[in-house]
Specification:
Low-confidence stretches of chain B: none
Order of helices and strands of chain A: EEEEEEEEEEE
Distance between the termini of chain B: 40 Å
Order of helices and strands of chain B: EEEEEEEEEEE
Radius of gyration of chain B: 13 Å
Oligomer: heterodimer
Strand content of chain B: over 45%
Helix content of chain A: under 10%
Mean pLDDT of chain A: 93
Shape of chain A: globular
Number of strands of chain B: 11
Structural class of chain B: mainly beta
Largest interface: A-B, 30 and 24 residues
Number of helices of chain B: 0
Helix content of chain B: under 10%
Radius of gyration of chain A: 14 Å
Low-confidence stretches of chain A: none
Strand content of chain A: over 45%
Distance between the termini of chain A: 36 Å
Mean pLDDT of chain B: 91
Largest sheet of chain B: 6 strands, mixed
Number of strands of chain A: 11
Amino acid sequence: EAQVTQNPRYLITVTGKKLTVTCSQNMNHEYMSWYRQDPGLGLRQIYYSMNVEVTDKGDVPEGYKVSRKEKRNFPLILESPSPNQTSLYFCASSLVGTSGLYEQYFGPGTRLTVT
Amino acid sequence: TQLLEQSPQFLSIQEGENLTVYCNSSSVFSSLQWYRQEPGEGPVLLVTVVTGGEVKKLKRLTFQFGDARKDSSLHITAAQPGDTGLYLCAGGRDSGTYKYIFGTGTRLKVLA
């Protein structure tokens, strides 16, 4: 089954304790992205990657790191989490559709709470 | 900073009614997408519109991209309870990049 998987789905952690949220896709998509979703603010793009070893900042990259060492995986790293990073996180992968535009497939989300 | 504003924020209607959701910006977008998100799940792509004035239909859903490519609307005819969810619009910033901005969403509830 074609899908984007994220782990963990739920995480409660403390301020300053490094964590990684994994994202993997089995659709051979070149493009991947991380978003956070907060009430009243919608989805905001954190980082995106247009190919292996190619990453770029989205709108809210502060406090996050990513890496793209292989095509299928795009982990999100929080080196020193803070309470303002409490949010619902989504990973997405994309192919270029017939319209020449990106068709994004989203993972199920990771709910992170930082205390 | 480009912003996408959606209205209304919340909408509760009876089954069989029609509704329109709006997505507006002061900026021009290269493309506009609509997604539906259900609780506990990620957004699911419904449609992509590219050309100013473009209209696309998906069963009872009609999507339109504004002539100036700054706004879009989603019209649902004869809404059904299965249409319940969070509707999100997303604008492509620059052709050839994977940068997207999402609207704040319209939460729709269709009552049986």
